[in-house]
Specification:
Elements: E1 6-11, H1 19-30, E2 35-40, H2 48-58, E3 67-71, E4 78-83, E5 86-91, H3 95-100, E6 106-109, H4 123-126, H5 128-136, E7 160-161, E8 165-173, E9 179-184, H6 185-192, E10 195-201, E11 204-206, E12 227-230, E13 235-239, H7 245-249, E14 256-265
Parallel strand pairs: 1-2, 1-3, 3-5
Antiparallel strand pairs: 4-5, 4-6, 7-8, 8-9, 8-14, 9-13, 10-11, 10-14, 12-13
Length: about 270
C-alpha cells in the first residue's frame, strides 16, 4: 500500500448534512497520514448511471493502492473490488458491474454481523471506514470476506449501431451544461468508418467534430454554434461555447440522439 494512503469519496450524500464530516473525521482519526479526496458528493440520490460515469471518468487515474469509497444508492450486499491495483468499496447494486463488468482482478463480499449491537443505516461510516482502514493497514483482500466471481448486473445503456446510423444517449450533464454522450471517441470512429455525419440536436444540426470549444464553422443549419467535441473523459460531448447547451435546447440525461451517416467520406 501507499506510504501516505489515499482514499477517495464518491457519494450521493450532498453537502447540506454532516455525513461527509463524520466519515472524514473517522478516517483521519484512524488512518495515520491519510489523504482524503472528494470526487463528488452531488450525485442525485441513487443515480447509478451518473455514478458509473463519474467513477469511470474520475477514479481510474489514481495510483496503485488507492482506496475508493463509493456510497450511492447503497444496499446489501457490499463488496470490495480490486481493479488495476486499486480498491473499490461499494454496494453490489449493479453499479460496480456497470463500471467493471466482470473484468476485475479480485472481489470479496463483506460479511457483517447484524445483531442488536450493530446498526448499518449509514454504511459509508459504520462499514466502509473500517474496511478502508484494514486495506490501508495491509490486510489482504481475501481476509475481508468470501470471494465473488461475478457482480450483479445493471442494464447496460450504451449505443446502438445500424448500417447508416448510430443511436446514443446523454450520459451526463456537467455544471456548464455540456452533455456527454454514451460513446467514446475511439468507439465512434470505429462505427463511423471515416464517413461524414449529421447529428440533429433539436432544431440545430451538427456536421463535424470540433477540437476545441471555439472550433466553430459558420453554418446556416446551426446558427447557435452547437458543437460536438470530445470531453476530458474521452466521451463525445454536445456543447455550446460560453453558454449552456442544456438550457438552450433542454437536454436531459438518458435522452437519445441519432447520428445519420452519409455515403461520402468526412473530408468531402
Amino acid at each position: 500500500m501507499l506510504s501516505s494512503p489515499i482514499i477517495t469519496l464518491t457519494t450521493d450524500w450532498g453537502t447540506r448534512d454532516f455525513f461527509c464530516g463524520m466519515v472524514k473525521g473517522r478516517l483521519f482519526s484512524r488512518i495515520e497520514g491519510v489523504r482524503v479526496v472528494d470526487i463528488t458528493h452531488d450525485i442525485p440520490r441513487g443515480d447509478l448511471t451518473r455514478a458509473s460515469f463519474i467513477i469511470r471518468s474520475g477514479c481510474m487515474g489514481f495510483p496503485p493502492g488507492t482506496v475508493h469509497m463509493i456510497d450511492v444508492g447503497s444496499e446489501w450486499p457490499y463488496v470490495v473490488i480490486r481493479f488495476h491495483e486499486q480498491y473499490f468499496i461499494c454496494s453490489d447494486n449493479g453499479l460496480p458491474h456497470s463500471v467493471f463488468g466482470n473484468d476485475f482482478s479480485d472481489a470479496v463480499k463483506l460479511e457483517v454481523s447484524l445483531d442488536d449491537g450493530h446498526f448499518f443505516t449509514f454504511p459509508g461510516y459504520s462499514l466502509f471506514c473500517q474496511v478502508a482502514q484494514e486495506l490501508c493497514g495491509g490486510t489482504p483482500l481475501s481476509a475481508l470476506g468470501p470471494p465473488v466471481s461475478a457482480l450483479n448486473p445493471m442494464r447496460a445503456m450504451g449505443y446502438m449501431e445500424m448500417s447508416d446510423s448510430l443511436v446514443v444517449y446523454v450520459n451526463y450533464i456537467d455544471l456548464y451544461g455540456n452533455a456527454d454522450l454514451s460513446i467514446r471517441y475511439d468507439q465512434f470512429e470505429q462505427v463511423r468508418r471515416g464517413r461524414a455525419f449529421r447529428l440533429p440536436v433539436r432544431e440545430y444540426e451538427v456536421r463535424r467534430l470540433s477540437h476545441t470549444y471555439s472550433d466553430i464553422t459558420p453554418d446556416p443549419a446551426n446558427k447557435q454554434g452547437v458543437l460536438l467535441t470530445v470531453s476530458a473523459s474521452g466521451y463525445l460531448q454536445i456543447a455550446l461555447p460560453n453558454k449552456s447547451v442544456q438550457q438552450l435546447v433542454g437536454l436531459r440525461v438518458l435522452e437519445h440522439f441519432r447520428f445519420k451517416f452519409l455515403d461520402q467520406s468526412a473530408d468531402q
